[in-house]
Amino acid sequence: MRRGIVQLVALGVVIAVLLTLVALLFKWLPSSASVEFNRIQDVYWFATAIAIGIFSLVSAVVIFSVWKWRVPLDDDADGPPIHGHTGLEIVWTAVPAVLVIAIGIVSAVVLAKNGEAGSTPPLQVNVIGQQFTWKFVYPGYGNKTSGELVLPIHRQTKFTMTSVDVIHSFWVPNFGQKMDAVPGIKTTIYVTPTRLGNYQVVCAELCGLGHATMRAKARVVTQGQFVSWVKGK
Ligand SMILES: [Cu+2]
Q: Is CATH 2.60.40.420 correct for 123-231?
């Protein structure tokens, strides 16, 4: 009995280590370039850690059972009758319930934080989707209009989206935030860039024949570069 438990635990640990390697050694998510995406990735990893734990437990028990209690091929006898086990049933209901509630709470906290303006007023950028192009307007800077999205690093930006024709969806994979641009209404998201560089604005809602080409360049620059860009032209 004692030996069996040790073997079962060892099996679970081996599976958990293998799964952890698979989770860590491959690049599953775009690299984060925003405060908001950092938070979202934390939720991913939290849920992944729980999934690895549960999967390791279940698969260890299944493999262990098949390995230890298999009968010869010609054994046609019925197995022993099995009765319920109230304690075990309470545990296997309560533990997943607690885990799912924990994931729900963590997600709700991140969702709320990602949707709230910080203490300093954010940079306002209006995003207009149109088959098959993006337009960015900076109302704080004389309605400067650009086909390229330029953002200062470490400054929270509030995007207000709309569309002039069909539904589009504003998405910069490295920023993590995604929101539909819908004709007639205004939708918002916040992004706080954390890394200088070039990124891509992608339309993430099938919007017609040119949908796949509905891309724009996004550039995160220093505050000084941003000011000279936004005041130029
Ligand atoms: Cu589109």
A: yes
